[in-house]
Amino acid sequence: MTYRVLISDPLSEEGIKPLRETENIEIVKNPGWDETELLENIDQFDALLVRSQTQVTRPLLEKAARLKIVGRAGVGVDNIDLDAATENGIIVVNAPNGNTNSAAEHTVAMIMSLSRNIPQAFHALKQKQWDRKRFVGVELKQKTLGVVGLGRIGAEVAKRAKGQRMNVIAYDPFLTDEKAEQMGIKRGTLEEVLQAGDFITVHTPLLKETRHLINAEAFELMKDGVQIVNCARGGIIDEDALYDAIVSGKVAGAALDVFEQEPFTEHKLLTLPEVVATPHLGASTVEAQEIVAVDVSHDVIRFLEGKAVRHP
Ligand code: NAD
Ligand code: MLT
Predict the structure, then answer these.
(1) Could you report the per-residue pLDDT of 186-220, keeping only the tens digit for each?
(2) In whole angstroms, what is the distance from residue 69 CA to residue 5 CA?
(3) How far is the CA of 9 from the centre of ligand 1 (A)?
(4) pLDDT-based confidence at 312, cuts 50/70/90?
(5) Which of 32, 64, 113, 277 is deepest in the core (most CB within 10 A)?
(6) Distance CA 250, CA 305 (A)
(7) Virtual CA dihedral for 10, 14, 15, 21, nearest 10 degrees?
């Protein structure tokens, strides 16, 4: 029997080698289908591999008569309707470890972009403005980083912040005093973290409970002049509340890799000079993309061979 695998988002060619090298697997990669074409064709496939662009919705899963497995080459599965997958007997696997390092490094780059105004200064210089006064920054040393969500990425960011001589305070429902002590950081409630941070970075998944976790009331609790980083998911921070908090001067800067609606070409937050942004690049490194594609490819092969998957 030949299994047909659809890869509908750009995945590392090197990473999908295991699939290409498996005899009874036929791959259709990036056929360029729009939503309607995807709906029309999904019933020809046994496995679907995606990154974050393809929305794996209930209508799609209900049309997917042959589909047995969806592989998400990355961490967040918020673009997949998990209830609909379960109801239709389709297993969902992800690659939870492969992009941790890249996402943590991107977060640190964003914190440093904020603290030293690097993107803004570069932009001014490109406009032929040599302006040293406007771009005076702040040191990270002895500033406090508030981490909301101390999972894989949050913990890696915390370690790197310690390397910058920052004090770190974190909130995560699963963080214990022992683990905090071991890491040389402080454990706090959400309120304590929001109150203490000179920089606040969020690293939770996007869930019902975390949607707009950082909202107008949360901004009220923060220090004046706080700087905010979101390299996790659009929607964890209420973008309208962030916009208002920047305009009012409460928030001095924000670095955003992810947005409530992606992709976009116009965004009101990007009209503010205090905002630096990247188009969801946290995991976009050669290394991370290869590892996540290898990981999901192996899980799909294992599943199709009747073996247990590693990351259901
Ligand atoms: P993880 O599961 O290891 O960590 C998430 C942590 O959030 C967990 O420790 C969990 O206990 C905590 N959490 C859950 N609800 C919370 C709440 N209400 N308050 C505080 N903490 C809460 O996941 P991870 O690998 O660290 O990834 C985190 C998120 O980053 C992913 O869900 C994904 O959406 C995002 N991500 C983005 C990129 C990117 O390209 N920008 C790359 C990788 C991951
Ligand atoms: C993830 O959840 O892993 C990220 O969104 C990375 C990505 O796929 O771009």
Answers:
(1) 999 999 999 999 999 999 999 999 999 999 999 99
(2) 10
(3) 22
(4) confident
(5) 64
(6) 56
(7) 110
294 in Cβ contact with 21 (< 8 Å): no
> What is the best residue among 53, 54, 75 to mutate for testing ligand 2's pocket, by most ligand atoms within 8 Å of CB?
75
DSSP H helical segments within the chain, as ranges? Answer: 17-20, 35-41, 58-63, 82-87, 100-116, 118-126, 152-163, 177-183, 190-196, 216-221, 239-247, 286-304
- Asked whether the predicted pLDDT for residue 311 surpasses 90, the reply is no
Mean pLDDT of 155-170: 98
Beta carbon of 154 within 6 Å of any ligand 2 atom: no
Beta partners for residue 253, in sequence order: 227
**ipTM value for the complex:** 0.99
- The ligand that comes nearest to the alpha carbon of residue 52 is 2
Calculate the alpha carbon distances from 173 to 91, 153, 188, 190 in Å: 27, 15, 10, 9
Q: What is the pLDDT of residue 93?
A: 98
Nearest CA to ligand 1 atom 4: 151
Q: Bridge partners of 91?
A: 69
Whether the Cβ atoms of residue 113 and residue 119 lie closer than 8 Å to each other: yes
Residue 264 CB burial class (10 angstroms; 0-12, 13-18, ≥19): exposed
Contacts of 126 (CB under 8 A, 6+ apart): none
- Does residue 168 contact residue 156 with C-beta atoms inside 8 Å? no
Distances (CA, A) of 220 to 37, 138, 273: 46, 22, 21
